[in-house]
Amino acid sequence: MSPLAGYVVVDLSSGIAGAYCTKLLADAGARVIAVEPPEGNPLRRRTISGAALDDGADGALFGFLAGRAHSVVADPRRAADRDLLDRLLAGADAVVWSPGPGTADRPEHAPAVLRDRHPHLVVTTITPFGLDGPWAGRPATEFTLQAWSGGIVGLGRGAPERAPLHIGGDVGEWFAGAHAAAALLTARQRALATGTGELVDLSMLETQILGLSYYPVSFYETSNRPFRTRRRLSRPGVATAADGLIAVGCGTAQQWFDLCVMVGHPEWIEEDPTPAITERTNEKAAEIAAWFAAHKVDEIQELATAFRIPNSPVADGATVTELDQHRARDFFTVQPGGGFVRPGPPFRSRPPLLREPAPAPRLGEHTERYRRAGSPTRAVPADAATAKPLPFQGLRVVDMTTFWAGPSCTHFLAMQGAEVIHVESAQRPDGTRLIAGVPIDEDRWWEKSGIFTGLNTGKRGITVDFREPAGREILRRLVASCDVIVENYTPRVIEQIGLDWDAVRALRPDAVMVRMPGFGLDGPWRDNPAFAYVIEDASGLTARTGYPDQNPVEPYSLGDPNAGVHALVALLLALEHRRRTGEGVLVEAAMVDAALNITAEQVIEYSAYGALLERAGNRGPHAAPQNLYRAAGLDEFGRPDNWIALAVATDEQWAALVDVLGRPAWATDPGLRTAAGRRAHHDAIDDRLAEWFADQEIGAVVARLWDAGIPVAEVLQPHRQAEIPQLRHREFFEPVAHPVNPTARHSTVPARYSAGPGRYHRAHAPLLGQDNHAVLAELGYSTAEVAALERDGVVGGTPRF
Fold this sequence. Notes:
With 801 residues, the chain is an alpha/beta fold. The protein has four domains: 8-214 and 335-372, 3-Layer(aba) Sandwich (Rossmann fold); 237-328, formyl-coa transferase, domain 3 (2-Layer Sandwich); 396-598, Crotonobetainyl-coa:carnitine coa-transferase, domain 1 (Rossmann fold); 624-710, formyl-coa transferase, domain 3 (2-Layer Sandwich), CATH 3.30.1540.10. Helices cover 35% and strands 13% of the residues. It has a seven-stranded mixed sheet with strand order 3-2-1-4-5-6-24, sandwiched between helices. Helix 16 links the parallel strand 14 (419-424) and strand 15. It is globular. InterPro entries: CoA-transferase_III_domain, CoA-Trfase_fam_III, CoA-Trfase_III_dom3_sf, CoA-Trfase_III_dom_1_sf. Residues 340-361 are annotated as: Disordered. Keywords: Transferase. It holds the Pfam family CoA_transf_3.
């Protein structure tokens, strides 16, 4: 039985975020009832490429997102349809809501009203900034949210001589949808205990902060300096080979040494080691580029893989289905009833948690069925339990993860009340401890990474050298004591230490084990190094990012946290399966599978219409004009680098912009009154706007444009996120005291839950080995045995490199 069988969700959303959220729920067995206006959900007509659709035909993307949903047409102007919707809500368990055409726009269907009228419902809302606060209801687009989040400049994406770059492909919408599914399932977990629903208020700005920047506020307030302030092109990064594009990463000293040998210059290793790796690779950029240009993609990939250097061909909608790894895993399938190629599931499991794909419904296909059917009424029981502000209290998790993807998954559980035990070793601490920006001769340098503290508050911490038999015995005892095991090592590591799924089941038959390999547990790339940027290369995220006259650039961010939130969704579904059946579950949440789902539109458009979606700098398919424009003045670093993100999404917004500009003759040209006309003259409009913005003070002009109803944003430095009034209102950042570092603000979760908790960070991130004695005592070790383990170096609180 699917984990959400019998769970009923009414979908009152109209964008990709809501549709992807409900798709994940429907695939897991929920009955999703999509309530559409008479003209249908706008997604039915969406084709980014502009492909012509036959009258009455739905776009391919809708077919992918709406499979298994039920379609009910309701005209909110008709009393009978309003009554139908009310009956559907009375019989449902949850609602997914976003502002848009149809019933969601009516006051009687506002989220708070729905929650008051139907207190049994989990009402999950998806809005740009949240339901209340100083920015609530302000106009925004995917593009302007990326700017406000700091994600456009946060990780130094793009060449310094040009404007910074947003990530293409509407990735923020998809990422928000996955977060909405996780938020709804979290509220469901609480509802199972309390018997009542709640309002879950998700902010897309907050999801983008978690996905497009690397805990910059925590880093800044811990180290008193920004994580990164300058744009740079990674080398080799995306390189031109003799027959195509390939991306090769070089982020560690060992990878630099191996690259030197691979490109035939071992003598570079002996040169001055003082400059950072980025500087050294840029110094040798010409020689490196020449070597790549002389070799084919397959040859470079084979060599880089042999050297253990992260690499991948740069895939797009036309080529991603042909990559060896995806073919070997039979990842892409044909959509039932649609005839186009689509990605497979974002995670796999034993037993299966997700159902096979199914066709999307015709508009109104199920309306009469629900008109005739008597809807069961679900109400809050008289003996509803008292509040449970921490929905995962009592859940015990062993967290064998490192860097960003895995810890972000387990961090959510810790913030929501789970007991999470983070496992490192003194010989190999969590990799984010090494990203502290302090010299290694500084006292306790390994405790001074704001990135580590930002990802691990509320967790307990132990160190175990599991290369030793005694260390492996500690892990076995720990696994036997836990409900959930999460790990993101390369697959061979877990197998070498004897903790594969069969071993885990023998220790704990009802365990949920979540494995997060980069490329999956099988296939020719199974053991390849998988950093975020390689996942982005192999999934199409990179291909949509950059200027059309240059090679694409890697987003260098989303590949990790996107994997984390999809693994979280899978974990919550696995817990529901265990609750219903008593069985344990193995989840395989490959990072690349999650990324291939949020880039699904590329493959779908190419397969359905032969249209290759390509990068377009800072322009986009939903707004014209859309771009970054330099404003007057210097930024906080003394550079002429103040940028404004503008996205005119409607003809009404264009008219408002023309008024703000003072109605100059060029802007009042009748040919610019339509999106098609503006798109045709985008270059000329950009020139005019660039000239106008160059004389404007950034804060004042953003306020004027926003007050006029135009989506606009400052391209914010990410360490300034905590200064955003909306985030202060929602208390998205919380101060956390630390025994080694200054008190610093840390981001929380991207949704406010009406049932709590009031605070998410209840303890600082663990010091290295902080809980060794306590956890080992819980596992049955005596004080003398722990002392012996410390003497032997199996456990410890100081790095041993």
